[in-house]
Amino acid sequence: MGGMKFLVIERAVVPRLPSDPKERERVITEHYYYLKKLSDEGKILHHSFIGTPGGVNIVDVESHVELDKLMMSFPRFPYCNYEVYPLLTIDEAIDCLHSIYPKKE
């Protein structure tokens, strides 16, 4: 497992998708099988949105550079907008809290 986790929100921009139905089907199919491969490798946890094209991924990587490379390899990368948020575990969040607001005994 990596050392950093990121929430990646993916929203497909339908007008950007290929207009040819066969090419669109190929891109979408490749994308989902690629996400499945990454999921099987423990790199991501993916959930698709219902009723709208896109989804969310929790990505487990060693660095922001690895995240960028991974995202650029998404077959649907040129056809989506992404929001990326670094994540903390609850223990890391508590440690940050105590570094700002020291624990009172």
Fold and architecture overview:
- The chain is of the alpha+beta class and 105 residues long.
- It has one domain (4-100): Alpha-Beta Plaits (2-Layer Sandwich), CATH 3.30.70.
- Helix content is 38%, strand content 29%.
- It is built from three helices and four strands.
- It has helices spanning 21-40, 64-72, 90-100; strands at residues 4-12, 44-48, 54-61, 80-87.
- The protein has a four-stranded antiparallel β-sheet with strand order 2-3-1-4.
- Strand 2 and strand 3 form a beta hairpin.
- The chain is elongated.
- 12% of the residues are buried.
Describe the structure concisely for a colleague.
The chain is α+β, with helices and mostly antiparallel strands. It has three helices and four strands, in the order E-H-E-E-H-E-H. 38% of the residues lie in helices and 29% in strands.
Shape: elongated
Strands of the widest sheet, in order across it, are 2-3-1-4
In the CATH scheme, what's the topology name? Alpha-Beta Plaits
* Strand segment count: 4
Question: Rg, please?
Answer: 17 Å
> SSE string, helix = H, strand = E?
EHEEHEH
Mean pLDDT: 92
User: What is the name of the CATH superfamily?
Assistant: Dimeric alpha+beta barrel
The amount of beta strand, in percent, is: 25-35%
CATH architecture, by name, is 2-Layer Sandwich
Which regions have little confidence, pLDDT < 50, spanning 5+ residues?
A: none
Instruction: Tell me the structural class.
Output: alpha+beta
User: Helix proportion of residues, in percent?
Assistant: 25-40%
Please give the CATH class. Answer: Alpha Beta
How many domains is the backbone divided into?
Answer: 1
Number of helices: 3
User: What's the story with the biggest beta sheet?
Assistant: 4 strands, antiparallel
Euclidean distance between termini CA atoms: 36 Å
